[in-house]
Structures are given as structure tokens and as C-alpha cells.
Specification:
By secondary structure, the chain is mostly beta strands. It has a single domain (25-180), classed as OB fold (Dihydrolipoamide Acetyltransferase, E2P) (Beta Barrel), CATH 2.40.50.180. 14% of the residues lie in helices and 40% in strands.
């Protein structure tokens, strides 16, 4: 005669499994909507935080080029915020936004010999919408397809297809280099 499975016995069986570390395949990426028809990814190694920022918390800077929204602070760090679509030559969708979706990325120090004297710099990258996280195995990242705007090619590591949607894997150092031209 078998003993009936109760909720308590099932919970006792599943509880240890909840606390076991499981290694998920692939590299973690932060997924965001750049434009209505463009979904992008940043490698999580570069992302320090993602924020929903009221427009009033970004201080505009006079005489700055269009991609530069201004400066803001978070966690006792002040940094510049650029609009990614505008930086990449795409039409802006953030013109009259009340809130900005900002991805804060780390810029490694230029002098790696003395990291304490030259701390990591931050850059805020405003996108249309932050969508969450996804994982990709490197074998699923391919060269950009022909239907990708030539403006984007220098800033891409590649692209992937997930559930029939094309995901653009952006090269954060290339974007940081482009933004430094405006600062």
C-alpha cells in the first residue's frame, strides 16, 4: 500500500532543490528596446545598474550635442547620460519622456596598473524601454544580417534570433567610445 502524497511531503521533497545552485547555459545579457523595431542586448559584465529615472533628475548641460541628455547621480556617483538611439543615428523616441530607462555601464580605467587611483567611470545610456534579462550561448550569436542599418554595424558584436525576433548584441566599449566624442 503506497502512502498518499500530501502537500507537506511534496514540499519537503522540493525544498532542498530550491536551494541548489544551478548553472544556466549561456552568457547573461540585459535586453532593451532601442526603437520600435529594434531590440538590443548589453553583456551583463558591463552593466552596473538599470534605472527608471524621472526626467527632472537628469540635469541638462548647455551647448551639448543632441545625444547628450545631461548628467545625473546614482549611488553617490555622478555621470553623463546619452540617448543611445540618437547617438547611433536613429530617430529619437524619447523627445517628450517623463521618465527615462537608463542603463548604467562601467567604463574600465585607462590605467589598469593603479585601479585605486583611477576608479571605474560610469556612463548612463537611455533607451526606449528595459525589457529584462536573457541568456545566449556564443554559438547563437552571428554576424549582423544584411537588413541592419549601416549606422549600427560599428557598434555591434553580432545578432541572434530568439523566438523569431532579431536581437542586436551591442559592443559597450564601442558605444562608450562614441559617447566620449560628445563629452
Amino acid at each position: 500500500m503506497s502512502t498518499p502524497i500530501t502537500s507537506l511531503s511534496r514540499l519537503q521533497e522540493l525544498l532542498p532543490q530550491m536551494f541548489q545552485a544551478t548553472e544556466l547555459p549561456g552568457r547573461a545579457y540585459l535586453r532593451f528596446q532601442l526603437a520600435l523595431d529594434i531590440t538590443g542586448l548589453f553583456a551583463m559584465e558591463r552593466v552596473r545598474e538599470s534605472l527608471l529615472v524621472p526626467a527632472g533628475k537628469i540635469t541638462p548641460l548647455p551647448n551639448m550635442p543632441q545625444p547628450v541628455l545631461g548628467v545625473m547621480s546614482s549611488r553617490n556617483h555622478a555621470f553623463c547620460v546619452v540617448e543611445l538611439a540618437e547617438l547611433l543615428g536613429l530617430r529619437s523616441s524619447l523627445v517628450y519622456s517623463r521618465h527615462y530607462h537608463v542603463i548604467v555601464v562601467g567604463i574600465p580605467p585607462s590605467n589598469s596598473q593603479e585601479p585605486s587611483s583611477n576608479p571605474e567611470q560610469l556612463l548612463g545610456i537611455a533607451v526606449n524601454r528595459i525589457q529584462g534579462m536573457t541568456r545566449l550561448v556564443s554559438e547563437n550569436i552571428h554576424s549582423p544580417k544584411e537588413n541592419i542599418s549601416y549606422h549600427l554595424i560599428p557598434y555591434l558584436q553580432g545578432c541572434a534570433i530568439e523566438k523569431e525576433e532579431q536581437l542586436l548584441v551591442f559592443d559597450v566599449p564601442a558605444i562608450v567610445s562614441a559617447s566620449l566624442l560628445y563629452e
